[in-house]
Automatic annotation (TrEMBL):
Residues engaged in binding substrate: 219
Catalytic center residues: 57, 60, 112
Signal peptide: 1-21
Organism of derivation: Pelosinus fermentans JBW45
Organismal lineage: Bacteria, Bacillati, Bacillota, Negativicutes, Selenomonadales
GO BP term, example: cell wall organization
EC numbers on record: 3.4.16.4
UniProt cross-references to InterPro entries, sorted A to Z: Beta-lactam/transpept-like, Peptidase_S11, Peptidase_S11_N
Protein name as annotated: Serine-type D-Ala-D-Ala carboxypeptidase
Keyword Hydrolase applies: yes
Keywords carried by this UniProt record: Carboxypeptidase, Cell shape, Cell wall biogenesis/degradation, Hydrolase, Peptidoglycan synthesis, Protease, Signal
Annotated family: Belongs to the peptidase S11 family.
Keyword Signal among record annotations: yes
Domain of life: Bacteria
Amino acid sequence: MYRRLILLFLSMIFGVNIALAAPTPPQVEAEAAIVMMANTNQVLFEKNSKGIMYPASTTKIMTLITALEKGNSNDIITVSSSDAACEGSSLELKAGNQLTLKNALYGMMLVSGNDAAEAIAENVAGSIPAFVEIMNAKAEKIGATSTHFTNPHGLPDPINHYTTAYDLGLITAYGMKNPDFAKIVSTQEYDVNFLNRSAIHVRNTNKLLNTYPGSNGVKTGYTNDAGDCLVASAKRGDIQLIAVILNSDYRWDDAAKLLDYGFQQVESKRTK
């Protein structure tokens, strides 16, 4: 903003048209990446953005959307023994634990609880397969036509659980239009309360919320096959950006580069 005002002032004084140079496209390490404007889905940069990739726990973005649209935040979730036994990242749920859907969603998104994802799916739709069917139908409706889910958490299914960076961008842009979604994914710390046990204090695994100016979401992910993944978002003024990084050993740096480039692109276009 200040740079644009300075250039405008100089152009008025010297009677010349001074424009910002177009930003240099970023060099990112991710196997697939994209940065887009959330309100229009306009792509500002992409690298293999439509290549088929494993989403890992970024899957939970679609789980959150589905649960918010099909469930009630005050509904009581009861954790089953199979939910509690779910492998991978965990909210440390025990069979018989009871909590509201709202608390389960915060737990799922902040610490990437696979156990919470399964409990949410079972309680919202009656079964995990029924919930996943709703996820897939909604993803297709959003426009994510190269995406297919077989579970609500992203644990490996090397044949039938896949997405693209572009599709994840579309899904996230859709989710950010829901105030409840936006609030959950931007929360850094939360007390997950239970009806029949002590509360658990959780912290968001998304480091950018503490380090990147304007960061307001969204979700980390990792499996051996998927590598380190990240869907990141940031807002400055009226510009909301979504960045997707899939399979990168430098996901935090890649995300910052993509978001920086995105904001520079918008700024450059506005000065022309």
